[in-house]
Request: fold
Amino acid sequence: MEVLRPFRDEIKAKSLIDNIKALTTKPVNIMEVCGGQTHTILKYGIEDLLPENIKLLHGPGCPVCVTSLEAIDMAINISLNKDVIFCTYGDMLRVPGSSMDLFKAKALGANLKIVYSPLDALKVALANPCKNIVFFAIGFETTAPANAMLILQAKKLNLKNFFVLCHEVLVPPIIASLLESKESNVQAFLGPGHVCSVMGLHEYEHLVHNYQLPIVVTGFEPLDILEGIYACVQQLNNNGVRLENQYTRAVTQDGNIPAQQAIKDVFEVCDRKWRGLGFIPKSGLSLNSQFKDFDATIKFKVDNLDIQESKECISGEILRGLKKPYECEFFGTKCTPLNPLGATMVSSEGACSAYYKYRQSKLTASP
Amino acid sequence: MCLAIPGIIEEIYMQDDITMAKVNFQGIKRSVCLAYLTDINIGDYVLVHVGFALKKLSHIDFINANKLINVDSELN
Amino acid sequence: MSSDVFNSCNLPINDQACISLGHGSGGKLSSNLINEFFLPYLGNEILNELEDASVVTLNQDNIAVSIDSFVVNPIFFPGGNIGSLSVHGTINDLAVRGAKPLFIAASFIMEEGFLLEDLTKIIQAMQLACRQNNVKLITADTKVVNKGDCDKIFITTSGIGLVTANDIPSVSKAKVNNNILVSGDIGRHGMAIMATREEFELESTIESDSASLYSLINLILASDIQVNCLRDITRGGLATVLNEIAMASGIGIVIDESQIPIQTNVAALGEILGIDPLYIACEGRFVAVVDEIRAQDLLAIMHSHPLGTNAAIIGKVVDDPDNNVIAKTIIGGSRLVDTLLFDELPRIC
Reply:
């Protein structure tokens, strides 16, 4: 994309990398929170360009990967109803449930529609009054305002054939949870740029204050990532404990206030189970009491599924930055994108899948 | 997470009481919800995620691509 | 009220393996399907080569034979329709084996209710494509199935061509230090189709690259340049073709990402939907592998033809026992470019 080309400039990248090299004197562990950042790091081969003592840990910020097995099974179960059209973002189709993924449900006859925007699901509902339309509302704070608008519009249009399966998750509680853990080895974070476009910086200031480590809110282009890493290393060198905003073109102190208001109007904070990470208090959003009529779990009575997670999958340790994908004994053998044991191997932003896709050669070359 | 890309506003209109825009992403156009932004005009750049504009972008942001490193170069 | 399919909340147990759309993506699953299910029963020394068209010798003539089915949705798309596509596709499979396409056979499966007006447009497009390329459709079959048993129209075409090249280009003939060329900008056909999907509500200016490659390839084969591999880029995109060449030739490939021609609007749609143009189908592009000292000459020939104006040298063949395809990224890093695993899906993250 031409407008993004300045952020993918080879000469500037080289200059940033030289600066990072000059600055890096001791080993540092930096975690990028977002799957989108992981994707950029691997797609552009950024890790290999960095000094060896910078270790990038790939965090839990892929909403597809962390959507709980229960939610995936509920989605599959609901989608198999004959009178349902199940609308979802494309990335959810290959996430493995207990016994199948949504693709398999489609092969068994489920009527699935991939949508680009939540509002597209509303159009499906209006065009199919004799069907029940269910939208799989997943995502972090970036996506929550879009999902909220969908539900507000459904209420305004008084739709009776429209439901959402809601699995919204929040970033600050998961960062806090990672840092509460004694095993954490994260020294600095690249903060989630697009989440902060919506939410602003306040929550991240609290995290910096409470856990005494640098967070640099960072964008998604290669130069953004390199700048974010540079700023982290610089702070770590100077024992800095500050929130920095690398992604100023998209993130302001207060964020997008109308979007935050829509989230408050439609959702309430709830406890949530994260795939691979378990139960985390106050880490999700669910429909508040005014919008319960749209809750697909009530409509389709799917809240009590018998679920089974693969015992061999270590995605929890991967998402916490404790292990790299290639440290899993099943990586690339029993677990591949074609036969994933867990969700981190499925989504293109999942750390395992991204490693498989972009770095397989290195791994086979160096045992 | 959260793929979001910049596009340019070509047309602004109302649909079901919400403000929408036709946004041009370098030759590909799509309707985008503007409900969460105020003071948007034709020709503005916006950052779009799943069909929603989240932030107005300034054209200058695209020219001054790296603030932090410029600061650093000055120091050097 | 609620579920009328299940009495309990538990999921139905269904461990029976079945065909998924991924088996038709042209990527790793398609390849698994062929290797595990078809070749064990139907394989022989000719089929096992897995070329775009097989070459057999009859009465001292080398005859190229190919077959392909076309199930595109929508059947009319910017830049062509299923009729022109079905003729071009088969001509291209023959042309990349150094054959002059001569005859085509076609089979039509149509759905009850399919409009005769649409059928006429499709047949007219086939007529034009055959005339332009001097090929004759010499046998055909039609079948009609119940409403819903197929989507409007499926077309299968098979082609026969006479191999004129002395040394037949093959996917297995790439050699270390050869250069890799692509005949034009990539990803247009798949992206043009993607952009028409109504659920995405996109307005796009992308036109399919569907075209017959015979005249361009003929120009190359008539020159004094010895081309080692020619392969047309279809399902699975450029990335998959490069991997096929690397595997079949037992070499590695390094490409320079900044040199790969991609139209701005194709790149933009890739960014919007989060899909990589390297994996998106073309229908009028090919990869050529040639000795490095003739690469510029080959490029000049491509540039002289209307279908090759955007041709580029994108990389070279290296010695690599793992047969990897590696991309040098635009910021100077490197990454693995794997075969397509499954169809690229739009993503939010």
Chain A is about 40% helix and 20% strand. The radius of gyration of chain A is 21 Å. Chain A touches chain B through 54 residues (CB under 8 Å).
